[in-house]
């Protein structure tokens, strides 16, 4: 008898230090909970939980499921694994958990041992990704449905405006304004089409330094017109990357345009290209602009979410999509009235030794 008692004490000591929430209960009454389980339910001490019914902590909508599983366990001795449950903590906070249970002998009587894993963060992340995925699908459907329909009459309107412009030269300023706005609509439709129609892309070996130089040459006129200087700094030994050149150029042009527009009174942009850890390259674009509020940074990859007065929020979203397809990542940090740093990290071709 002493040996059995000592064995049970050792058993309790082991499960007390396990990094999982453990509950032992007879029928409905909780007989034992370890420290992890105590913390998970928001208890100050074990007595806040011991002796209570397990159904005190299970959301009423999940009672029937819990009863069914417990019946299976007791009557058919079927071990259950990763059963989803919704629990109510002592502070009334709702948490989502996965429960694995089995029958055991505890203090000489039949009981149930459950290992409970808190998956609240995982579930919220999954739901957020699903919501984002649904939003992207909706954007794609909208784009496919309306982009071509808008472009056809837009071409006709543009043609007539150009005709009127040639006849009424005294009103040229107004015609130019209308044509400029029509072109902006055309560009927005172009962004929709990128989302709606995935194109077959061909990846090739490319020197990232050469690609960045081309981008800076393309954007420099806009920078100079806005009193912005771009300073480029390359590390000497940067490996080649595998990419779709035009897509990557689109990403860097978009980031640099955003940086220029964030500095209406002019300023400088530092563009730094350097090796980052093993087989990766970092392209940092640092501006002195108005900055982005911290709470907005996580939403920058979402459609229709923009800090610009005339933006659609699609430019950055497309950039995230392109970098993701290149097995890279975009990191954004910002301080209001100090500036924004956008870091693009891309894999490089491993150098042979």
Structure keywords:
single chain, 353 residues, alpha+beta, Beta-Lactamase, Heat Shock Protein 90, 3 domains, five-stranded mixed sheet, 8 helices, HisK_dim/P_dom, phosphoprotein, ATP-binding, PAS-like_dom_sf, nucleotide-binding
Describe this structure in words.
It catalyses: ATP + protein L-histidine = ADP + protein N-phospho-L-histidine. Keywords: ATP-binding, Kinase, Nucleotide-binding, Phosphoprotein, Transferase, Two-component regulatory system. With about 350 residues, the protein is an alpha+beta fold. It folds into 3 domains: about 1-120, PAS domain (Beta-Lactamase, 2-Layer Sandwich), CATH 3.30.450.20; about 125-195; about 205-345, Histidine kinase-like ATPase, C-terminal domain (Heat Shock Protein 90), CATH 3.30.565.10. The chain has 8 helices and 12 strands. The N and C termini lie far apart (about 65 Å).
Q: How many strands, which pairing sense, and closed or not: the largest β-sheet?
A: 5 strands, antiparallel
Distance between the termini: 67 Å
Beta content comes to 15-25%
Low-confidence stretches: none
- What is the overall shape? elongated
Task: List the domain count as a whole number.
Answer: 3
Q: Supply the number of helical segments.
A: 8
Task: Name the CATH superfamily classification of the largest domain.
Answer: Histidine kinase-like ATPase, C-terminal domain
What is the residue-mean pLDDT, rounded to a whole number? 80
**Strand-pairing-aware structural class:** alpha+beta
**CATH class category name of the largest domain:** Alpha Beta
Q: What would CATH call the architecture of the largest domain? A: 2-Layer Sandwich
Instruction: Examine the coordinates and then state which fold CATH places here, giving the name of the CATH topology of the largest domain.
Output: Heat Shock Protein 90
Tally of extended strands?
12
- H-E order: HEEHHEEEHHEHEEHEEHEE
- Gyration radius (Cα, Å) is 30 Å
Helicity, in percent? 40-55%
């Amino acid at each position: 008898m002493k040996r059995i008692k000592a064995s049970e004490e050792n058993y309790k000591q082991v499960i007390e230090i396990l990094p999982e929430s453990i509950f032992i209960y007879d029928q409905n009454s909780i007989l034992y909970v370890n420290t992890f389980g105590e913390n998970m339910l928001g208890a100050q001490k074990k007595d806040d939980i011991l002796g209570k019914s397990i159904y005190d902590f299970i959301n009423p909508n999940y009672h029937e499921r819990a009863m069914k599983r417990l019946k299976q366990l007791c009557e058919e001795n079927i071990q259950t694994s990763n059963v989803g449950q919704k629990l109510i903590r002592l502070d009334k906070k709702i948490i989502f958990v996965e429960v694995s249970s089995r029958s055991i002998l505890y203090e000489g009587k039949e009981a149930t041992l459950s290992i409970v894993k808190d998956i609240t963060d995982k579930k919220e992340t999954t739901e957020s990704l699903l919501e984002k995925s649904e939003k992207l699908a909706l954007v794609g459907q909208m784009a496919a449905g309306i982009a071509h329909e808008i472009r056809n009459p837009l071409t006709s309107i543009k043609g007539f405006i150009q005709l009127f412009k040639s006849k009424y030269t005294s009103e040229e300023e107004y015609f130019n304004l209308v044509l400029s706005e029509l072109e902006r609509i055309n560009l927005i439709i172009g962004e929709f089409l990128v989302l709606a129609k995935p194109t077959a892309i061909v990846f090739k070996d490319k020197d990232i330094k050469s690609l960045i130089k081309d981008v800076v040459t393309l954007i420099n006129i806009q920078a100079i017109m806005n009193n912005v200087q771009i300073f480029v700094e390359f590390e000497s030994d940067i490996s080649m990357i595998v990419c779709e050149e035009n897509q990557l150029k689109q990403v860097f042009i978009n980031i640099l345009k955003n940086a220029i527009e964030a500095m209406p009174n002019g300023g400088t942009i530092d563009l730094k290209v350097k090796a980052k850890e093993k087989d990766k390259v970092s392209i940092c674009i640092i501006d002195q602009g108005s900055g982005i509020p911290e709470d907005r940074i996580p939403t920058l990859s979402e459609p229709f979410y923009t800090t610009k007065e005339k933006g659609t929020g699609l430019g950055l979203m497309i950039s995230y999509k392109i970098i993701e397809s290149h097995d890279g990542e975009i990191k954004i940090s910002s301080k209001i009235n100090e500036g924004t740093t956008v870091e693009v990290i891309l894999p490089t071709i491993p150098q042979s030794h």
